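TASK: fixed-backbone design
INPUT:
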């Protein structure tokens, strides 16, 4: 089925990455964030619902479950874990692609949260710009972020108020094998605070959760 889906979706113009196990899929999704996920519940290492829960700790990417489990309890469990749709095997490729198109259209709608305030700074996620407006009413000044700083900031802003694990950030920004390089995160987080926080030594928005990860507090 994995091979058949890959062939059919590529024939319809989609770029496809495949994984045969849950942990491998999580690493790949962090390394190259997808526009949508097609997920089987019966994986060799993890249950598919566990994969969904892990994805939901850091991304709102649309997830369609493809499963031979037709019981309502399995469907409810997957949807409660964060799946967006549930397709029972066997299914037609036309139906699957129609559901995929519908989810991608929904996900492509303009977000109502494009502007985010961090102290005196306004982050425009759509335009990928940051400006600082000081309280004295002076003209806004642009704040320059590096590519890595932008990726780190976006990873935190898309999960407001939620803990984002250091291991997830490291895998997303630097790929598999970087899970122990926490000094990378400390360095770039310190730079972000200096650029965005009003009082970098005592940040109010870009917070460290010691031993676990980081959190954006609106």
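OUTPUT:
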């Amino acid at each position: 089925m994995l091979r058949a889906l890959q062939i059919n979706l590529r024939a319809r113009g989609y770029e496809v990455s495949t994984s045969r196990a849950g942990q491998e899929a999580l690493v790949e999704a962090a390394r190259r964030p997808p526009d949508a996920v097609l997920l089987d519940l019966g994986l060799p290492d993890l249950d598919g619902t566990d994969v969904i829960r892990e994805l939901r700790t850091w991304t709102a990417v649309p997830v369609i479950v493809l499963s031979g489990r037709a019981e309502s309890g399995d469907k409810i469990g997957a949807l409660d874990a964060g799946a967006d749709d549930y397709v029972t095997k066997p299914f037609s490729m036309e139906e699957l692609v129609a559901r995929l198109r519908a989810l991608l259209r929904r996900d492509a709608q303009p977000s109502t949260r494009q502007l985010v305030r961090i102290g005196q700074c306004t982050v425009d996620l759509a335009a990928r710009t940051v400006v600082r407006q000081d309280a004295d009413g002076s003209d806004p000044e642009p704040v320059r972020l590096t590519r890595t700083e932008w990726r780190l900031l976006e990873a935190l802003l898309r999960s407001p108020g939620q803990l984002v694990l250091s291991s997830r950030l490291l895998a997303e920004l630097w790929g598999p094998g970087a899970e122990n390089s926490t000094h990378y995160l400390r360095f770039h987080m310190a730079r972000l605070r200096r650029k965005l926080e009003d009082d970098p030594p005592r940040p109010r928005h870009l917070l460290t959760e010691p031993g676990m990860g980081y959190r954006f507090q609106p």
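COMMENT: The beta strands are 37-40, 63-67, 85-88, 115-118, 121-124, 129-132, 141-142, 163-165, 206-209, 213-216.
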